[in-house]
Amino acid sequence: MSTPLPVLAAVDGSQSALAALRWAAGEAARRGTSLRVVSVYPWPLAGYPEALVVQHDLRDGLRAQAVANLDEAAAVAAEVAPGVEVRVSALEGDVVGCLRVASEDAAVLVLGSRGLGGFSGLLLGSTAVALVAHGHCPTVVVRGEDNGPHGRILVGIDGGYTDDAALGFAYGRAGTTGETVVVVHTWGSGIADAVGFAALDWTLVAEAADALVAERLAPWRAKFAEVEVEAVVVRDRPARALLDRSAEADLVVVGSRGRGGFAGLVLGSTSQVLVRHSACPVAVVRV
User: Where are the domains of the chain?
Assistant: First the structure.
């Protein structure tokens, strides 16, 4: 039997990164796998002329800081999940490139919502978009206050081809944690709703939405009969429907791309709203 892939966490010395590390350590324990922790320091570093600073001293200093971050992270992980094997790596180079390569051999990549140094502004700029859009495994952005477990996982589906990936991620977790899977599907928030088609029979639209959710859930209900499921089918916008419920959830799960309300999720407004404002961690699952 093959060895399960590790959970990958990125740290930079910030409290946000340590919060993500704690989540990652717990996830590694749940999955029965190891935890790999990386700290990336950028090199070569522009903007520091040789006349002002000796290049090799700066490089050594950056690496020393990365190693210190890893030492702290390893100690925290040992407290959270003492039985989990922890491997640490100080990586040199472009942050996005290093993490993208590292994600090739990971079950999930876990990031904080904000950071210092190389991860500064991580989730507000191109770095996060690149990792969520082009990483080789699901990416979890740990944000929100840790106000205790709620026992609920939100999953946004829209009838697109990434629905099964998102549902699989959520059900796989719920099957071991006992959490309830809350499937959220919205309707009536597209072009027809925006221009106001008075003649459109919204009852039929709502019934079609209910049927879609039932169809998508059928195989997962059969496979994970022990997992409690709730279906929320509402006339709303996807981001708002998920955000409104995120304060009472432990995780929000969405596919990396979809159609309808979730179209352009990774590069559009929905993903930006989720990673900026969700009250709990957000998992983006790629196909």
Answer: 7-142, 152-285
> For the chain, how are helix, strand and coil distributed in percent, rounded to 5?
45, 20, 35
Do the domains at 7-142 and 152-285 have one common CATH topology?
Answer: yes
Q: What pLDDT tens digit does each residue of the chain (287 aa) get?
A: 678 999 999 998 888 899 999 999 999 999 999 999 999 988 876 665 655 556 677 888 899 999 999 999 999 999 999 999 999 999 999 888 999 999 999 999 998 877 544 444 444 445 666 777 778 999 998 987 777 799 999 999 988 888 999 999 999 999 999 999 999 999 875 555 555 555 567 788 899 999 999 999 999 999 999 999 999 999 999 999 999 999 999 999 998 764 444 444 444 456 667 877 899 999 988 87
**What is the CATH code for 152-285?**
3.40.50.12370
pTM: 0.87
Helices (H), ranges, the chain: 15-31, 55-80, 95-102, 126-134, 163-177, 191-195, 202-223, 238-246, 269-277
Q: Which residue has the tokens 């100690």?
A: 75
Q: Tell me the CATH number of domain 7-142, given options 3.40.50.720, 3.40.50.300, 3.40.50.150, 3.40.50.620.
A: 3.40.50.620
